[in-house]
């Protein structure tokens, strides 16, 4: 029965690097919801993909010695490969470098400009390069980017802006009238109280400081900035076009839910709705901001050797075990945790013991006592009603929890049914019944009820562990696998001949596996730190180098530091409106007059430090040129403020 359409999306993954297991949680979560909705009879369209433009990509590609397109092709391939490895059933994988997407984004930009919702001005503010975001002083947290906690720097640039302020009241009204638009409630309160009600500032939607982006058709020194480019994917993938949209768009839009990480809720509940309001298009029905998955209590880090990749974990445990862990371990509103110890523990206790053992011994007993032929339930007792009630309750619990995105609770409901079936085995003791020929009908009823309970589990577990579901039905020779068959207990056909059982999940030797993993982690950490010694200097990754902001600055003043013979206090013009003070230990080799008027390279995002009473906000580059010989790197032919790459 077709219950109507259901359009669900993930956030599109940024193609800066291969995603770790924490990033993979979202695609598995979204896929589980999509699979469940299909199971229930909905016409589902699931979208995922990659976000491929921006300054960071341009810099990574340059450092890697390839074109930006070559760089994103490689990473997008890795991201799609992980989606496939995790057995996700996306209907479309969009890339923001797809030709059709770029053309429609240009049309969207032009439409908004022509109707006055985008205008040209100049931006001067505090810029975070990793997040590609401008911030005001008031928005900073402890002087740093409120999203990633990194240093920001002053920047000034001609840009086009989207009039967020024009739609503020309309958006505020919409959020307050549609109570489930932002979910969970805590994210809704955060958006209203922290961002919308204090007043929205117009949004920078173009850039001139890099080229790797979609050009503005009527002003080609500008490229369209991330928001209009990336967020539009949800409608361009369906064939939206300002000049006339396709049938897929008319069928599936508005989205029923955007599944996104909690860190990008603001973009999806402020920028995106306002873009749609300006275009005159319906808003998505719901935005669900899920929490993060941490390694233990830490974020994953290559230098710690604790980065876990989905494909590596799949090789170790299998696809369904990885999907099960991701879905069962992540709380609804708080950050989840992943560690090899807990993965193995949950694998052995839940999958091998509770579920795997239940299926294996039930089918084995059917083979042993009834030659594999499923008996008819002809000797019911009161105890059986408890098992039937547990099966019906599991169906209800799974439905309620998936529809409210309490995925871990939905998974637990299925596992609780498996536990109840195991308890039923202990209560009925089939091996004891088998010893008494007069109890043959009762034995047959017990085994039928167990097989039917397992059938319920097989259907309900299919969104979470699709291959396991198939394996269960294959071993049971069961073809009654539709959701509607769960409306009543007893749909499994007596007379069916089950197969020889094979273990669904073989137990893991935890001590052995953890020992092997610890050795690999040690190797990974050492490799990341030293990789390969070249002339005594350890290599670093592109990500590490991109964190260092090197700028050309002119020395406008220089004086000795009275309390330190080695230090000179330099005042630098680095292209911003504020002079920069740097204390440098070069007094032995340079006098102030040797430096004033010279251009040097300064590390501009170094954390400030107080040296002999001087607050030093940076470091200038110099070279060790021999025994007791230091030379400052002068770059007199370069303009002030130029970025060194």
Would you spell out the secondary-structure blueprint of this structure?
Elements: E1 5-10, E2 13-14, H1 21-39, E3 43-51, H2 55-64, H3 68-85, E4 92-95, H4 99-114, E5 118-128, E6 133-135, E7 153-162, H5 168-177, E8 182-183, H6 185-196, E9 203-204, E10 206-207, E11 214-215, E12 223-224, H7 226-231, H8 233-236, H9 247-252, E13 257-261, H10 265-279, E14 287-290, E15 293-295, H11 310-317, H12 319-329, E16 336-338, H13 340-370, H14 382-403, H15 407-428, H16 430-433, H17 440-460, H18 466-476, H19 510-530, H20 542-546, E17 550-560, E18 568-573, E19 580-584, H21 592-595, E20 599-603, E21 609-611, E22 614-616, E23 619-620, E24 622-624, E25 630-632, E26 643-644
Parallel strand pairs: 1-3, 1-13, 2-3, 3-4, 8-14, 13-14, 15-16
Antiparallel strand pairs: 5-6, 5-7, 7-9, 10-12, 11-12, 17-18, 17-20, 17-26, 18-19, 20-23, 21-22, 24-25
Helix pairs in contact: 2-3, 6-10, 11-12, 12-15, 13-15, 13-17, 14-15, 14-17, 15-17, 17-18
């Amino acid at each position: 029965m077709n219950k109507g359409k259901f359009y669900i999306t993930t956030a599109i993954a940024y193609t800066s690097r291969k995603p770790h297991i924490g990033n993979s949680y979202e695609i598995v979560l979204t896929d589980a919801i999509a699979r469940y909705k299909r199971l229930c009879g909905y016409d589902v369209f699931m979208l995922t993909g990659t976000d491929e433009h921006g300054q960071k990509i341009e810099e990574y590609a340059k450092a890697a010695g390839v074109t930006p397109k070559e760089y994103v092709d490689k990473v997008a391939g890795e991201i799609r490969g992980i989606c496939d490895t995790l057995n996700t059933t996306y209907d479309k994988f969009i890339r923001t470098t797809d030709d059709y997407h770029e053309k429609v984004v240009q049309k969207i930009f032009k439409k908004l400009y022509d109707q006055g919702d985008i205008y040209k001005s100049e931006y001067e503010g505090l810029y975070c390069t990793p997040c590609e975001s401008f911030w005001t002083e008031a928005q900073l947290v402890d002087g740093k980017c409120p999203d990633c906690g990194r240093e920001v720097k002053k920047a000034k640039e001609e840009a086009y802006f989207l009039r967020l302020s024009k739609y503020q009241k309309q958006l505020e009204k919409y959020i307050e009238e549609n109570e489930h638009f932002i979910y969970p409630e805590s994210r809704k309160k955060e958006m209203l109280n922290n961002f919308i009600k204090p007043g929205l500032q117009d949004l920078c939607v173009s850039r001139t400081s890099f080229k790797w982006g979609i050009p503005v058709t009527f002003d080609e020194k500008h490229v369209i900035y991330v928001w209009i480019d990336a967020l539009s994917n949800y409608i361009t993938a369906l064939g939206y076009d300002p000049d006339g949209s396709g049938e897929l768009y008319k069928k599936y839009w508005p989205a029923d839910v955007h599944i996104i990480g909690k860190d990008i809720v603001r973009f999806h509940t402020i920028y995106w709705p306002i873009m749609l309001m300006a275009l005159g298009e319906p808003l998505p029905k719901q935005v669900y901001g899920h929490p993060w998955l941490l390694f233990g209590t830490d974020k994953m880090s290559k230098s710690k050797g604790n980065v876990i990749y989905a494909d590596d974990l799949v090789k170790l445990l299998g696809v369904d075990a990885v999907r099960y862990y991701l879905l069962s371990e992540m709380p609804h509103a708080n950050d989840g945790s992943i560690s090899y110890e807990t993965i193995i523990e949950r694998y052995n206790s839940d999958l091998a013991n509770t579920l795997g053992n239940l299926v294996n011994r039930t089918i084995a007993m059917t083979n042993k006592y009834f030659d594999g032929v499923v008996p008819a339930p002809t000797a019911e007792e009161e105890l059986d009603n408890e098992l039937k009630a547990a099966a019906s309750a599991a169906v209800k619990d799974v439905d309620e929890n998936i529809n409210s995105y309490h995925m871990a609770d939905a998974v637990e409901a299925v596992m609780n049914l498996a536990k109840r079936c195991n308890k039923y085995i202990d209560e009925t003791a089939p091996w004891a019944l088998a010893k008494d020929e007069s109890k043959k009908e009762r034995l047959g009823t017990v085994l039928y009820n167990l097989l039917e309970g397992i059938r319920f589990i097989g259907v309900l577990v299919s969104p979470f562990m699709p291959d396991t579901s198939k394996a269960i039905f294959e071993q049971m020779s069961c073809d009654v696998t539709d959701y509607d068959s769960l409306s009543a207990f007893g749909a499994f056909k007596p007379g069916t001949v089950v197969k020889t059982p094979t273990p669904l999940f073989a137990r893991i030797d935890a001590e052995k596996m953890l020992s092997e993993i610890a050795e690999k982690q040690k190797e990974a950490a050492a490799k990341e730190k030293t990789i390969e010694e070249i002339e005594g200097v350890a290599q670093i990754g592109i990500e590490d180098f991109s964190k260092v902001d090197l700028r050309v600055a002119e020395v406008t003043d220089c004086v000795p530091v009275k309390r330190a013979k080695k230090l000179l206090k330099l005042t630098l013009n680095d292209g911003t409106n504020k002079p920069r003070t740097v204390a440098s230990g070069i007094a032995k080799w340079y006098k102030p007059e040797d430096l004033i008027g010279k251009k040097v390279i300064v590390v501009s995002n170094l954390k400030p430090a107080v040296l002999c009473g001087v607050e030093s906000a940076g470091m200038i580059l110099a070279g060790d040129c021999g025994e007791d010989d230091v030379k400052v790197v002068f770059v007199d032919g370069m303009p002030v403020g130029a970025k060194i790459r």
